[in-house]
Each structure stands twice: as C-alpha cells, then as structure tokens.
C-alpha cells in the first residue's frame, strides 16, 4: 500500500497505521470516522461513512489495521474512502515493523545481544539484578521507543539506544582496563529502563505522551526506584544497589539536563558521556542527512543552535542510524 | 562545669562532651589519651595519663561523659588533667541538651506538635503515610540535627527546621485558601526525613559525616524511595505516593541546588520556597548576630557573597532561632 | 448585560467597558465608531453609525459607558448596533467592579486593613512615613492594578498584592520573633507604591502602558525616590529612610530581576521572598486553573518553562486569588 | 623624608601620613602610641612613648603630620622613635599630594577643565543642573579618590576618572555626530558623583571604608537621588531629570555589575562603555607594569582571570595613568 | 528611476539592481524571467517575457543592470514589464553607490585615510605588514560590506566600520599615552579583513551568504592565518606576527562572542571594546531611528532584549551612521 | 638509586634528574650548587660544594645526570653531598623513562601504531597531510608530555593521549558506520600536535612553562596554522585543509573551554567528546587512586567540584592509565 503514489478512482486493500481518528457527525446527523492513515511511504486523509460503533469496531490512535477502499478526489487532493476496516490479526502475517519507522534490527535480536552480555558478568549480584529487571519489563522493552520526538523515537528505539551504549561501553572497557566492566555494562543496560513507565506508547511502538508520573518523577528517579524495589526483593546488597542507583540518577551528567547528582565514580561518568554522545550523533546525523552535500542545516536548537555542515564524505556505510 | 572560667590548680567534677580523642604514647612508651572536652560554655584540652584500654574505658568522639580532674598550667594556657572518666549513665540524671547546642524546644514537644497536625489531616491516606514514616524514623528524628555545619546544625535541629516549615505552611494555607492543606503539610513534615540516612550522627545529636549513600543518592531521592517503600507496604495509592514523592525530589527548588525536578504544582513550589526561606533566615540571623550593631558582616559565601547589615532594630524577642 | 448569551435581533440596554475604539469612515464618507465592548461575561464587536464627535461624545479605551442598542447578524457572528451611548454618571448607581476583573475585596476594605496595621506600629517614624506616603497616593492606590498582564493585573490588584504580602509578613514575624515587625510591614506596604507612577492606568483600573519614566527608572528606584522626598519633607531620620529605601530597591531579590542591591538585612530578604512567593502562587494558580484535572499546562515561560500539573486536590476554597 | 633609606641612630624631621594608630599600654601601665607612618617612599613602624592625650594630640588614621624623632634598631629591623608630632599646619607649606599617591594633575586644574566643558553646553537646563550639583560637592570632589582599592584609588582619583571619561566622551561625539554632546557630557561628569557619599575618605584623599548608606543604596541610586533633589530645587524639568537619572542608575552597564536598568538610549550606553573601558585600561596598565617585559602577570581576578602580557612596546609616554 | 512614485502605463528607462531573479515557464511553456528590481527608493516586481537565455543575457541576484520597460497594473498593484535589459557598462557612467545602500564616504576616500595612518607608523614591520595585507585585499576591500544583515551591512560598510574604529583608536591613544599607537592602529585596520573571505558578496557590495570556510573557521581565525601567511612571506618577525594575530583572534572580547582567546594586553583589549562599541552604537541608532520621538523600540534581541528610547535630543547632525 | 631508602653516611652512585638547581655562595664567598635530585622513587636535597662553573659543568632544571656522593645528616633529615656529577652520556646506557614518570608504552611503539593507522587511510590527501605534519614534529612528539600539571603530564604523555583517542575513535567508527574513518582519525592524530609549540619542555619530557605564543594563540589556533602552512606546501586541497582545521579549532567543544567554533560536523563533534572523555577518565582515575576504598576524594576543582568515590571494584587490571 502506497497512499501517495496511487491515483483517484482506484481501489485498494492493505495494512496501515491509524495516525489520528475522530468520530464526527454529518449535517444529517449520521456518524462517520475522520481518519489519517499512514505507512512507511506517507499518509492520507480517509473517511469511514455510516460508522456504527461496536466493540470490534472501536479504533484508536496508532492502531495497526487492515483496510479496503478506494481513492476519491477531494478539493485539490485525493482522499481514501474506507469500505472495510478491522484490526490486524496474527493470521494476517503482516509485520508491524514494515509499517512504522523501526530500528534496523529486531527487538528480539537486540535483546539477545544485551542478555549475552549480562550472562558474561562475573559479578553474580549484578547479573541477577539486571536479569530480574529485564524480566519485569521484557515485553514492552522489545518494542518501546526511546523518546517522543527526539533521538531514537522509533519502534524498538529504546533497545537500539541501549545496545549502542552497551557496545560503546564494552570498547571503552577494552581500552581503559581499570574500569569495572560489569558495573558499566549494568548501568548501560538499565539506565533508561524507566522510560517504559515515563511514556505512554501504543503497541505499535509509537510514543503518544509522557505519563503524569513520568513528568513528575522522571525516568532517572523512577529507574532508581525500580532497581531498589526489584533489588530488595531479590536480596541484592545495599552497596550494589546504591552504586547502580547512583548511575541511574546521574546519567544525564549535569543538573541542568536532569541529573539528580553529578556522576561520582568513573563508570557513572563514562555512562553519562556515552549517553550524551549517542544522542548527539543520532541527532546530528539526522539533521545533516536532511540537507544537500556542501550545505549547512538550519540552526539546531537542541545542539546549541549550531548550523551543521554536510561535507559529503560519508563513511563506509550509508547513514543508517544503527 | 565551666572550663573557661576556672583557674589553675582547682579540682573539678562534672559532665561534658568529648569533642576529639586520640590515643598517644609518652616518650617512655606509656599510653595516654589526648582529649578535647566541651560543654555549652566552651572547650578545654585534657589528658588522661596511664590509660589502660578496656571495654568500659573506650571513648569516641561525641561521647557524653562524666569526668573528675584538676586544672594544671600548660605553656601559656591551662589544661585539664583527667583523674576519672566514664560514660554518663541514666541514673546520673544529666541532660544532654544542657551540654550540646540544641534546639530551644525539646524533641518530644516538637514532635508532638508535628503529630497533632498530622492527626488533623482530612486525607486518610496522607495521615497514614506520614504516621508510618514518622514511626519508622521516630527515635532518631527526636535528636537528629538538620545539617553538618550550616543551618540548624544543632541537636534536634531537624525537627526544629521541620516544625518551622510546618508552621509557615499552615499560615500560607490560611491566606491562600485554595492550597491543599494536607498535601502541603505532609510535604513539610517529610521533606527532609531522609537526612536521617544521609548523615552519620552521634547519639548526642552532632553530625560527623555524610554517609556514602547520602553522598551518592542524596536525601531528596532517598526520601522519595523511603516514601515509596513504606507507602507500598501500607497500601497507599500510586497517585498519592507520586505527589508526595514529587514534593520530596523537587524541594530544593532548582537543579543547581539539587532538585531532580522543578516543582510542578503549587504545594511543591510553596514547600521549596519555605524551605529556602527558613534556611536563609537562620543563616542571616546567625551571621548578623556575630557583628556589632551598625556593622556589616564579612561576605557570606552561602548568601551570594553578601555583606549583611546589623541595623540593631531587633524584634520583640532576642534572636533565639526558635 | 451578557453579550455572549443573547441572540440576534434582540434589543438591549446596560453598562459596559470600551475595550477599543476607532473612528472610521464609511465608503460614502460618513464617520462611525468601530468599538469592542466588554463586561465580565465577555466582549462583542459594536458599531455606532453616523457618529458626530462632541465633547460629551468623545470616547476612549477603557471608558465605562452606558449603551442601548440591538444585536444584528454579521457574517457568521453577531454584532451590536449602538443606538445610544454615554459615559456612566454617579447617579446611575453602576459599580465598576462588576464590569472589570477586580480583586475580590473592595479597595476601601483592603486599604482599611493596611492602615490598621500601620496604626499599630510602635516605631513613630515608620508610622508617620507610611501614613504620609499612603496619603499622597491614596486616591489611585484604591483601584490601581499591580501589573499590565502578569500577576494581579486586575482593578485594585496593587492593594490586593500589597495586603497579601502584609498578611504573610505578619505571620512570619509571629514565627521568627527577632524580625522587626514595623520595618518588615512598612516595607511590605510601600514596596510597590511607585507602580502608581510606573504605569498609565485608566480610571477603571486597567493598565494600558508603562510610562516613559517607568521604563527608564523602574518602580524600585522611583519608590525609593518618593520615600526620600516625602520622608525629608516630614523630618524622618536619615537612618530610617535609608533602611526603607534599601528594602524598596532590593525587593526583587536579585539583579537579574531588577534589584539594584541584594537584600542586606533580614527584613529586606524576607520582603523579597514573600513578594516572589505571592507572584508565583498567583501565576501558578492562574495557569493550573486553565487546564483540566489530571492535565499539565503548556510550558510557562515566566516560571522557568515548567509544565504545571493540576492534581485536582483543591483546598478548602475554590481558587479565588484572594 | 625617606623612611626606608635611612639607617639606625640617625635623627630625622619631616612630613608624613599616619597609616595606622593604636593607643597601647606598657607593662608598667604607661600609655604610648603604636604607629605606622608613611610617605610616597615607603612606611615605617613608630612609637610615641609617654603619650598624653589632649585635643591637639589626638591622632587618627590618615592624618597628615609633621614628626621629629630618630631611628632605633628593633629586632631585625629599624623603628622610628617619635619625639615630637603634630598635625600639619597651612603655614608649613607642605603639599599633601607629595605624600600620598595622587592623580598627576591637581584637583583644581582638572575641575577647571570639567567646568569649561559644562560652560560650553547649549542646553541651559543641563548646564544649570551640572553646575548646581558640582557646587554642592565641590570641596570634596577636589580630592576624593574613585575607589577603596581598585582603579583610581588615589587622591583626586575621582576627578581624574571623571575627566578621562569626559575627554573620551567628547571624542566619541566628534566621530558620531548624532550623539547628544550635552547629555553625554552631563552624564560623564555626574555619573560617579555620589561616590562622595558612598565612601568615608580622610582629608588626605584616602578612602577608609564604604559608608553604611553606600553599602545599602550604592552610588548609582544615591546619585540619581541627589540629582532629583537638587534638580527639583532648581526647577529642572521632569524629562531632563529623568534622562540624567537613567544615565546614572544604568552606568554600570549590566545588572550583574550593579546597574538598576540596562542603558536604554545611546548616550547612556556610551557612558557605560567608556566607564568600563577606563576602569579596565587602568587596571590592566597597573597589572602589566608590575611584571617584567616578556612576562605574564598572575591571573587577574577582576579581569576574568586573565594572565596579561607585558609586550614591552610602550607608547609615546611612560605609563602614567593620566 | 523611482519605482514607487510612477503610475501605471508609463514607460521608463534607467538603472537598477536585481534583488531576485527566477527563470519560470508560462502555462504554454514559454520561458520568462520573474524579477524583483530595486534602487535606493524602493523595489518593484518585474517580468521579462519570452526570455531567451544567452551568455550576454544571463542575470544573477545583485547584478547592476540597465532596463527599459513600462508599468502595467497587476492585481491591486503595479508591475514592471521589461522590454530591454542588460548589465551596466562602464561607458554608461552610472554610479553603483547611487543604487545600493552605501557608506556615506566612498571606498577610495576611506581607504586613503586608512593608508595615511599606516604611512605614519614608526614601527617599520607593522607598516610593511599592514601595507602588504591591504594590497592583497585592496580591490574587494573598497566595496565589501561588514555584515549580512546586522551592523554596517551596506556597500563599503567594512571600510566604514574599519575607519571608525581607527578614528576612535587614535583618540584613545591621545588620552592614554602609554598605549602603543602603531600596534593598536594595525589591529584596528586588520581586525575584520578576513570578512572578505568569510562572506560571498556581489560586485555591488551586497552580501549574500557566509562561505563554507567562513562558517567553519570564522573571520577571526582566518584573519590570523592570512596575517601569518603574508607576514612570513614578507619576513615579519615571529614576535610581531604573534601580537597582531592575538589581536585578531581575541577581538570579539569573550568566548561567547567567538574570541578564541581573551584579550591579553591593553591594545587587544581596547580594540575589542571599540569594536563592540561601534557595533552597538550603529545598531542602537538604527533601532531608535525607526520609532517616533518619545517612543520605545520593540525589544532588541541583539541588545539583551532592551527596549530603546528615542528621546528626540539629536546631536549636531542627523543620524547618518558616518 | 633510591634516595629515600638509604641511610646516613652511605655512599652512592647512580642516575637521576635535577628537579631544581640554584647557584649560591657560602658565608666565606665560595660558590656551591643547591640542588634537588629526583628519580621515580622520590627526591632528595643535595649540595655540590666548591662549585666551579664550566661549559661541561653547567646544569639546568630537568637535566638527566649521573652523580656520585654520600648521605650526610642535616637537621632532622638527610642530605646528599655530591662528589661528582655530569650529564648522562649515550654510552651510559641509562634509560630516561626509568627516571621520570612516563607513559607505559615507549614513544616509538606508540608512534608506530599511529603511523600504521595513517598508512591505512583510503583518502590520499589526508594520508599525505598527516604524514607530513608528523614528520615535522616527529622528534619532539616522541617524548612530549600532554600538559604541565593536569592530565597526561608525563613523558610521552602527548602520544599516549593521542593514541588513546585514536583507539576510541576507531571503535566509534566501527559502531557508527556512517562516520568518516579517515577524517576522524586524522583529527584525532593532529588535534593536539601544536602542544609541541605551546609548552617549553626539557629533553626529559617534563614541561616547565607555556610559551608566550602558547599563551597568546593557544594550541588550537596554532595547530590550524601549522596544518595550513604544511598543507599548502604539500598541495593539499582547500576543502580538506578547511575540514581538518575546523576539527582542530573546535576540539575543545565549547567556547568556554577554548573552542574557536562549536564542532559543526559529526567527526568534529565526536573528536571533541572523545578528547573530553579521555581527559576526564585520566583525572578521575588519578584522583580516586589517591584515596582509600570506601572513601571520597576532596572536591575536584577541575571536575565541577565533585567529591569522587572509590568503590574499590577495579576492572580487570590495576589502574595504569594506559
């Protein structure tokens, strides 16, 4: 299904995402649904006339649906008239990753790499703690995005960001041999875990809003609280919990970026720097890709108002953001 | 006992505090204790010669002791030669408040006022939560100081500071009637409760050091964690815990002063302002009292380098800092 | 008169405020007035056709007028066609407070409370000084707003703000007995008095603009100058004037908010903190009231870009802002 | 008199300054004065034994005195034993400028140049205002320093600084012809006039302390108040006073340096920049002169911690700081 | 030619500037040029129908052209229909300064004054260095603007700004005789020379864009590099180059404004202050001129958000900005 | 030679470093040298009596010497009386790395790794540029330290720091495949090259002072100048030079840390972050190593005043700082 390529009058059937949905009333008082449908190729305005609400016909923002209908001209543009619509079923064999912006590796593959690292820990307490926390959040962790509309705001973006930090962290440990591998990796894996409670995310992996709790407490403090709760329930020592909790509440580096404490040991400091580096590289690559070679981007507010230069000397790969 | 007023050669018996203690050796290899003893009137250097260590004769910084001895000249000053020394026993009837700088109300009286306010709450969840948290910390709360060496660094200073904030909060509610009394008062009572885990304090109520956990996590986050743990154990709702926890992690007002979040509702904002106001008034009164009327203090580092003026127009009472 | 509730074709007579007025010309060259009329319920576009200018028929922004006319449809909305219009006369018995946003207490009642406090001063110099300054500004003080479009920008808002600060100040003195009651209260009463010369305000109590002098000197310095001039004329001592003037020029707390000096004694510090607290509470309550329970406000520029949370747990009263 | 060059045992008579004086008692209870005497060449510790206080024999810090006495060895150094001491009389013909660090032009010459500029004003109001203000402060203006221990802390330093700013201002007006000459020059002449009330200065022109009023109000606000008072008494228009007062309260440029308002018209802005430039040039020249050619100064706290370089390429004159 | 004053239907021939040019296609596929033409009096939309591209008929933004055509009505306005258009030839005798905003002195006159100062240097190295650098950039220096759209963004604005700084610098040397005249003047002349490589400028003297190199390196570092290259090629000593290069890389005063080093000797400091002063005076005069006497400007973003006051007391000349 | 372990009266011969040397005169007018000698084990005060200056007997700070002498008691300590002293000769076979704090890899080994990376570049221009710059500085690069007294202030510390950044950079390229390997590595290799001209360093690899040029221009701008000069001489393209020069002048990340420009493409940003990370890790490890496990360091001024925690959980190796 490619909404933008198809002309008026044609009929079409396929899978897509509901980007917005509103129940309205015609002048004659007949209810209809006013929708915006989207897939990876673009989006289109759509109408479902003579809508009758029912448990199986209740649709929400970010639902993954199968639709059938036809294209009709509307003012200067083309609209999609929905004839049939229902939520996607497992037996449809449709893959949500093909319809929403997603990390380039699947959540399962990324989580496996994370768990392999955890398995290699020599510190049994840290291995148990990380395992138990992942277990509690596993289902959502597989598809959660890392943000609403900044870096890694894609399906499975949280794992993508986590895994990248973890890979960087492993390399840093290989160069600075006195850094504690288990501690730094545990921090890398857990540092953003509470983003799962900080944002409301549809099952499609798209974040809609920060939760009230996310706004009032933030994922740094919420993460430390989760570690404290799960850690106590599993008999982790006070000292180990304290170190991990410190890494979580300090990982934004400075108070102005939300850290409750400045990082006070090396692993905490390195974690905060890698976190910042990954966010910056992601945002810079994103901005630079949007302009031509030899051009500057507009001022980037989140990057100290810099204009970034596309020098056109790419690396061995295209910019894939993983 | 008044160390500074008494002349050489006199003998003396009384109660005092050990401000420092060190085991040393004479040139002939005989062990002795080198002490500094203090009470509210001042302090004096002291020696316990021919010291034999034993379980009942082991002394630590901040121990409350009964001593007997005599004054002997030493260089240009006078020293106290200890003849007998032991820890104070309950049957001695000596009151620690008379020997260390203390709040002007006893811990018991102040805690009773705090609990009366709690009892008056209409919100049963907040009443239960505050009661349970106080119960857990009650014993130490009675004598804990509020700081190591800034405002309210006196025995029971934490309760003194808490009670003052609470009284201010009640008045604010009387003037702005739309502020939620129970919520603001709960925040006022609990806001610094984790200072009990942030500092190591002798039983005499004098803080020696920040704990490792205090340094790495801070009393704001530790307070929120304690509220979370105790609240969950007592069935307090998520919403109520979230509001109280937000008040705790935001009560330093701005990130540069350690707040993990800016205050995001009125009660949290008012709490942070009253906390700042009480600290400032305490520190300003302290500094101004140390200079003559008509004079300025030296620059006060903790007060934006201000020179404060002693205008000599005191209020209805002497400066008592409660 | 309730402009928004009344349908087309109806005739109406009542009192209202002129929010804007412009003299225009029809295509045929006949002059008419294009008006916006307002009362507490809303506002409406209005036309006075065949307008003949005369001394008794000259209207300005913020005039309080009596109108008669009828509602006529205009495009998609309804317009008011004015048949008769004149300024309100005393004999009309109309109360301006009913037609513009006003403090919930009348200026007279609030001023009486302020003067009762002044009367209670033990310091005769301060009593005389405050009395003389109030006397000079009394008439305008009764209805002046406290700002153009931030906190307390309502009729008699200046007195409302002054009285609230004064009440808070009295309570603070009751808790910290060493604070000088007369000095703090004198500062509270006089701190914003020069706002009367800083803004141009219509007799209805609505501020239109800052004056040139207000922009170039500001109410802090202008207030100190007024105190100096009136104080010298009434024989107040240099020392007393100096203390009060310092409180006025320092009451914004920090240079970035316009203070010419940091507060250098406790009463000056407390005044600056209460002033900030009242402004913040007013603005936060205002912002929070505008969103539903359980929602966050948009970012508040004047409150460090915070999103504020409406937790829906109101106090004993509705939010009335006095 | 050159205290440092003269050996033990010699007798000496001459003029000097009292840098400090303290009345003490010998072991036998005989009063004596413990002094430090200074002239431009250095300073020496001195004693006046068997001191009998009397109205003509009362000495204070910074008094200009005539002494007679002899040098006596004292520990590793030499002390001056005072035989006779009295304050300098006019008939002594001693010139105070020869004994304290002074501006290189006399106060009278500098003031004459300032008054010539004033006389040239085309704006009669500004001419009258400046004349009246100078008249009120004339006597002290002739010898007042500009600061306690920063730039121009020398006898007549205030006039020296004022005159330099005035000369710079005249040149700026010659280059930017649209700048109002009278207004900028009036501001230049009056901008620091209230330093005369901000500091206590001995008749020798050395500042000892800031006054209480100087600390609490500052010379910016005090200057505006003086202009307001003198201007009103001489019938100067509100508009003219307002412009001059604005220049005075804004002449430190930014709030962090004490300006109550940012400069809001060109003459105010230029004045603030010239004031800063003169202070910086003075301080930099002072610092650079203290190190050898080819060397860097230590970090200069008042100059953003810069190390300044002495490149040894002096101008047409030695560094004279006027 | 005065586009705004001339009515429809009239024919016209004259000189003007191309402010924008775009090649378009009519509905029938015939190419035409869509232009905006401008001179000092205003600008007008223009069309060249039936456009045939050729080497002599290729037009770019900012070309100086001779046009003939007529005014035709278009919607509510008037458009210019171009009949003939070609680039201006030397034999036309048209003077570009009459058609673009220009400095009030010609480039040649200003450069002559700059070179006369250079000629007067006593330091032969500095004389040679400045001469050689000017020689390299002479042609472009004559007409280059100083900025894209801030201060001195006019034809020959760079020389205008340079000359003003130089005049101020000379005066400063006359007042502070210890400042090195040659060094300060050399810095003044060269400080912005690399703006010639920082911006792309049409031959008409209007800047279009920053160059890539200008964005990535900036005119401070580029200026130091040019001085280094030209200086080495002409045998200037290391010491002299180092001093001049330091003045160039530090002339923005503080890091936040782009200085690579804080000024570290007096001439560097004075240069940075004069540079700032000229920019500010230019921008303030520009802003104040745009409002009526007695009015304030809107907030000026580049001037710390100040509202500037037009007090209407102009100097001896109109505001001419030179 | 181990100065601290050896007792009085013993004779000793060995190699060491001169930490300070001063020529003095005995009371009888005989010249002698007052020295402090040091090796990796400690330092000792030494005297060379009856010193006769000669070309072969002229000693300077940081000279590497061979000494013979004996230990003599002096006051409470032991002094070394030098009998023979001369500079170390190649035939002595003494290795300077054994006597001064040095990087744990030799300069030659580290440089070989750097050159192997250069050799692998696919971009021939960058390969040539880096090679030529290294050639010019090779000799000093082998032993230069990276700083006077902060991170990597050891012999060959500059190469150690360079190599670590290079290793980190390679890993980053492996994770983010779109980053240009050659460009980032070239920047990593060259970023601090001008430290060789910024500091005066003895042949032993110990920095004594910043050069005048280093203070006035800094290694960022000096590095860009060197690249420009060497690049032009070797025909490197403008575009390539511009990119490398930008990386050099921006590698301190923000203006407050000395960057002349913010990094404006990804490789420049990553370089600045890795540079900061290496400096921080080095300084934190250094500080943490100086306290016991379980303790906090004193406040670290260069690390935002943090107290760092030694958690005692070291990595796979001891802290070796390479």
Structure description:
6 copies of one chain form a homohexamer. Chain A has helices at 107-119, 124-141, 157-175, 181-190, 195-198, 212-233, 238-250, 266-289; strands at 11-25, 31-39, 42-48, 64-74, 77-87, 199-201, 207-210. By secondary structure, chain A is α+β, with helices and mostly antiparallel strands. In chain A, helix 3 runs antiparallel to helix 4 (181-190) and helix 4 (181-190) crosses helix 8. The radius of gyration of chain A is 23 Å and the shape is globular. The two termini of chain A are 26 Å apart. Chains in contact: A-B, A-C, A-E, A-F, B-C, B-D, B-F, C-D, C-E, D-E, D-F, E-F. Chain C binds chain D through residues 212-213, 215-218, 220-221, 224-225, 228-229, 232, 238, 242-243, 245-246, 249, 255-256, 258, 260-261, 264, and chain D through 212-213, 215-218, 220-221, 224-225, 228-229, 232, 238, 242-243, 245-246, 249, 255-256, 258, 260-261, 264.
Cross-sheet strand order for the largest sheet of chain A: 1-2-3-5-4
Helix content of chain A: 25-40%
Q: Specify the oligomeric state.
A: homohexamer
Number of helices of chain A: 8
Rounded to the nearest angstrom, the distance between the terminal CA atoms of chain A is 26 Å
Mean pLDDT of chain A: 89
Low-confidence segments of chain A, given as residue ranges, are none
- What is the β-strand count of chain A? 7
Sheet having the most strands of chain A: 5 strands, mixed, barrel
Radius of gyration of chain A: 23 Å
Strand share of the residues of chain A?
15-25%
Structural class of chain A: alpha+beta
Note the run of SSEs of chain A as H and E: EEEEEHHHHHEEHHH
Protein chain pair with the most extensive contact, residues per chain? A-F, 49 and 49 residues
From the spread of the alpha carbons, the general shape of chain A counts as globular
């Amino acid at each position: 299904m490619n909404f933008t390529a198809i002309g008026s009058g044609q009929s079409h059937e396929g899978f897509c995402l509901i980007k917005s949905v509103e129940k309205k009333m015609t002048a004659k008082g007949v209810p209809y649904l006013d929708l915006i449908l989207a897939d990876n190729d673009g989006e289109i305005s759509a109408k479902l006339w003579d809508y009758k609400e029912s448990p199986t016909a209740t649709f929400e923002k970010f639902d993954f649906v199968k639709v059938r209908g036809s294209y009709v001209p509307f003012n200067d543009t083309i609209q999609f008239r929905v004839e049939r619509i229902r939520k996607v079923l497992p037996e449809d064999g449709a893959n949500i990753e093909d319809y929403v912006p997603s990390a380039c590796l699947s959540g399962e593959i990324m989580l496996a790499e994370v768990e392999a690292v955890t398995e290699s820990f020599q510190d049994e307490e840290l291995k148990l703690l990380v395992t138990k926390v992942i277990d509690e959040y596993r289902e959502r962790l597989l598809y959660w995005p890392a943000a609403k509309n900044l870096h890694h705001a894609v399906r499975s973006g949280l794992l993508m960001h986590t895994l990248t930090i973890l890979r960087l962290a492993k390399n840093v440990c290989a160069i600075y041999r006195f850094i504690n591998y288990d501690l730094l990796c545990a921090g890398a894996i857990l540092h953003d875990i509470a983003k799962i409670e900080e944002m409301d995310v549809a099952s499609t992996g798209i974040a809609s809003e920060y939760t009230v709790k996310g706004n009032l407490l933030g994922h740094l403090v919420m993460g430390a609280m989760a570690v404290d709760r799960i850690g106590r329930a599993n008999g982790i020592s006070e000292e180990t919990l304290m170190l991990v909790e410190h890494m979580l509440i300090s990982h934004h580096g400075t108070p102005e970026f939300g850290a409750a404490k400045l990082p006070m040991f090396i692993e905490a400091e390195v974690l905060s720097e890698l976190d910042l580096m990954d966010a910056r590289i992601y945002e810079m690559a994103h901005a630079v890709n949007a302009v031509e070679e030899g051009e500057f981007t507009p001022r980037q507010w989140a990057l100290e108002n810099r204009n970034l230069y596309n020098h056109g000397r790419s690396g061995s790969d295209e910019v894939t953001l993983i």
